[in-house]
What does this fold into?
Amino acid sequence: MAELDTSGGGKHKGGKIRSKKSSTRVDLTAMVDLAFLLITFFMYTTTLQKPKAMNLAMPDNSVKTTQLAVAASRTMTIVLGGHNKIEWYMGEPGKTAPTVDNFGANNIRKAIIDNAKQVAATHSGDEAAMEVVIHPSDKSTYENLVAILDEMSITNIKIYAIVKILPMEVDDLKKNNNY
Amino acid sequence: MPRVKVARKSTAIDMTAMCDVAFLLLTFFILTAKPKIDDPSHAVVPPSTQMIPVADANMMTVSVGQHKFFYSVTEQDVRSEALKAMGLKYGVTFTPEETQRFSLTQVFGVPMKQLKSFLDTDPDQLKNFKQEGIQADTTNNNELFNWIYTSRQAEKALHDKDLQMSIKADSKEEYPEINTVISCLEKQKLFKFDLITSLKTAPKK
It folds into this structure.
């Protein structure tokens, strides 16, 4: 036990020096109280779960380089609407009617994976990877943007970009009451 | 029948072990403690499955909450240097006390014309100070742009390093606000930055 022998020397009485035994037990209650109080304080003030960072690289728009032509057939466009709704379509805008979708594993993620598989099946070599263009509308929230970028990393889409929304897509969102 | 005698026991318990554990935990918490930064933007960040922790140093963060912009830099000397540069740009002179105050302010969101009164406010009253947010738009010359620009220059001059940019926005913040921040960064050729999120468990693949 953690008691120290702190007994002092007794009085000198004639022959032998007798040490006076006194109890060495210290009352630890107060100390424990204080320790737990401090623990509680530090537990409440610390941020144990640090926020995480999502790396995002925007295309460099300062240098006008020759743009590589991307086959429309392997481009998926995701339009972020209001009320947590998504519209997506493959290929060029206006050619195919966009599909209205929701966020989540069974909705947009499934659509991305299916489309990526389809692109991989119909293309070969370097072109087998699907490209995703994200068009956030003015009514979409930061949460939507983070969610869709997160889907990119979950579904392992390597090429994606955030691009300004097209007016016709806004019209379409309005038509579907998603704006 | 003889009475059953209950043996009297001492109620004093040996608290040594408890005390040891308590102090062990206390030491742990003290060493790992990083005080919560009081963020006036009150942004609730959305969850994502990203696992990369946010860096502690050399960071500048633009927080967006309640449609207002807030700004913070981790380095104190960069803060005071940026304040000087901003004062020159906007024709405001700050006293050494104000500069000192500013270098200790972790997050702020006041326009330049309000900054002086913000820094002159008593620290106890600072919580009640209504921060209006830094003025920002998508043009080439707005306050948020200049704050980012001057602090980057200060970092370069003081430490010869590049500041890492991050955006911390409330989940419910709409895209135009985010776009404003992004365009401020793009205008100064900052194309790589972090979006701050909280951790969500990754889905099973």
Notes: The longest strand of chain B covers residues 192-199. Chain B touches chain A through 58 residues (CB under 8 Å). Strands of chain B lie at 47-48, 59-65, 68-73, 164-169, 192-199.
